[in-house]
Amino acid sequence: MSLDHTHDPALCSWVASANTADTDFPIQNLPFGAFRRQGSGEPLRVGVAIGDQILDLKLAAQASDWSSEVSALLAPLATGDLNALMAQVPKARRALRAALSNALAEGSTQHPALQACLVSQTAAEMALPCRIGDYTDFYVGIHHATAVGRLFRPDNPLLPNYKWVPIGYHGRASTIQPNGVDFHRPCGQVKGPQDEAPRLAPSQRLDLELELGIFIGQANAQGRPVSMDEAEDHVFGITLFNDWSARDLQAWEYQPLGPFLSKSFASTLSPWIVTLEALAPFRRPFVRGEGEPEPLPYLDGEANRAQGAIDIALEVRLQTPAMRAQGVADECISRSNFADAAYWTVAQLVAHHTVNGCALNPGDLFGSGTLSGPTRAQAGSLLEASLGGKEPLQLANGEQRTFLLDGDEIALVGRCSREGFKSIGFGPCRGTVLPALPALPSCAG
Ligand code: MN
To answer: I need a surface site. Which of 78, 79, 127, 265 has the fewest CB within 10 A?
Structure first.
């Protein structure tokens, strides 16, 4: 991951809102998303977030002069096809990033032509950024795995494979939804410890999971594992990802094959994919602690040790219906950091996923797993924050929560900061719990 002029903190944009200290989208970020003008019904196109605006790449491709290499990269983006760019080698992605950086920089000769290609983010309707083929959810948060394991196995919280195998399961892509799309509380089989038999009911232990979404770029052919040295060439970028979870459904269904319907009713993705190139300044060494087993050789690499981790500060914010009624802002209920929470790096996830020859495709999504810190105040799920539902979380307005109630809104926030560099963010990742649908008579609550 190398730094170049696109990361220069002195670089400013002719889009004034991109130059404020608190924007998620300074010219050093340049994340990709899919959108249309709100209410227009026009076909989706790919855009780049810049300050509080979007550069519409469909318009920009026609309005300005680009090199033939960049024009070819822009062509599929004009039709909303981000997967085509994701499939490119990193060199091509870097060429497009450099061209967009030059075009949006203060003093650019392209400014007059591109001014009319801006759309205000408030006037845009964001869709999922790309076609998501397959979705795998990992479990890299060691503090989460330990805290959850402790609820079930106080003496032996981590299973013996955890420090050797990046644990994951295959999820469903069909219910991943963009920021701001609400969802109904799911129904499913639940069985209390004293119940003789399970029953169908709305989940009473609905939870969030603070995760990152990792988007695959270039494909690997089936049968061809990706080595650690090549792994990041197959990663396009990162988003926020809330993997809503029904803990009561999960507890009853998860053995012996893992989570199933407790996870596949809804997951929320932030709209902008922050590229691996944009994250270059925020890389950190990946080091295993004292006494921890070293990764097997296929999960080890020099670059991974030097800068395999990514410093992303994360927050979970809750707004209850009462807070909305009282006009109170949402409350931060958890803070953690990807670099501190994750036992495995992004490169290790790619190398492990493909070691058996599994093919990954552009637009495939990995969930990181819940990214909790070591303390309860850093819990990335309510399951941990409430110690399995036993000790409610106290909110500042006097309310309590063990699990989510109808009307609760969760927002995830991500931000990268480092001395000497421009801070970048990930945009919104919000969703609200709606009441269960009375679709089945026995599920009406
Ligand atoms: Mn998950």
So the answer is: 79
Q: Closest Cα partner for 318 from 228, 243, 232, 393?
A: 393
d(CA 55, CA 149): 46
* Cα 366 to middle of ligand 1, angstroms: 10
Provide the whole-model pTM.
0.97
Say how far residue 87 (Cα) sits from the centre of its chain.
Answer: 19
Distance separating alpha carbons of residues 402 and 383, to the nearest angstrom: 8
Angle 426-432-435 from CA coordinates, rounded to 5°: 160
Rounded to whole angstroms, how far apart are CA atoms 287 and 221? 31
**pLDDT per residue as tens digits for the range 205-252:** 999 999 999 999 999 999 999 999 999 999 999 999 999 999 999 999
The residue from 143, 144, 234, 352 that is catalytic is: 144
C-alpha–C-alpha distance, residues 136 and 360, integer Å: 10
User: 68 C-alpha vs ligand 1 centroid, how far in Å?
Assistant: 42
The distance of Cα 367 from the centroid of its chain, to the nearest Å, equals 7
